[in-house]
Amino acid sequence: ISAVLLLFPPRQVFTWGKKNRDDGVVAVAVFVLALLVKPDYALLFGVIISLVLFLWKSMHPRIVRVAWDAEHKLYFNAETHDAPLCARVSVLRVDTSIYFANADYTVDHVLDKLDDGPPGVRHLLLDFKAVSFIDLTGIDALRSMLDDLRRRGVSLMIISLHLPVRQVFESSGLLEELGEAAIFNSYAQAMDVIADSLDHSTCGDSCPLSNLTECIKARRPSDRSCPP
C-alpha cells in the first residue's frame, strides 16, 4: 500500500479525470487493482484497458456535420450549435483515419448523417483533413458508398486529401472513378464549384443560408428567390 500510494497522487488523478475521462478511469482502475493484486499485474491491466479504449474510439470515429458561419467566416460543428443546414449541400468531416476496423462503420455513419439531414441533398462534401491513412478495406467501403450516392443522385466531393491517402486513391483506381474534378484543396474551392451548379430558384424565401458568400456570387441579380 505504501508503494502504491507513492505512485498515486490523488489531486493529479482527479485533474486527469476532468481533462480526459478515459485517463481518469484507467488511473483509478490501476490503483484499485494494485491494492488487490501485484502492482505489475495492475499496470499490465491498465495497459490493456488503454488499448481497448483506443481501439474502441478508432473503430467508432466521429463524423461531424459542418456549417458555414458567415459572421466569423469559418466552418464549425453544426450539431453542437444547432445551426441551420443547406437543403442541397451536406458537409461532413471525418475525424480519423479509415481502415479495416472502422471502414464499414464510417461509411454507414456518413450515410446515416446524410439521411438525417435535410431532404433533397444533391452534393456531399467530405472533409478528409484528419484522414492521414486509408487501407484497401477503406477504399472498398468508399467505393460502395460512391455507388450508393450515385443511385441517390448525390455527387461526392472530397477536400484536404493528404498525399499518402491520395496515392492509395490513385493506385486503387478510386481517384479515376471519382474524377479529379471532385477533389479540392479547400472549402472555398469546393463551394465555388457547388454553388455554380445549384439551382437557386429552388432555395425559396426561407433559405437559412441565403447569406452564404458562394450562393450570393452564383445567384443571378434578377433572381430574388434567395434574398441576401
Which terms would index this structure?
alpha/beta; six-stranded mixed sheet; single chain; 6 strands; elongated; 10 helices; 228 residues; disordered C terminus; 13% strand
Structure characterization notes:
Mean pLDDT is 81; it is low at 216-228. Strand 1 (63-69) and strand 2 (74-77) form a beta hairpin. The N and C termini lie far apart (69 Å). This protein has helices spanning 2-6, 10-19, 21-36, 39-59, 103-116, 136-152, 163-172, 174-178, 187-197, 213-218, and strands at 63-69, 74-77, 89-94, 123-127, 155-159, 183-184. It contains ten helices and six strands. Helix 3 (21-36) runs antiparallel to helix 4 and helix 5 runs parallel beside helix 6. It has 228 residues and is α/β, with parallel strands linked by helices. The chain has a six-stranded mixed β-sheet with strand order 2-1-3-4-5-6. 50% of the residues lie in helices and 13% in strands.
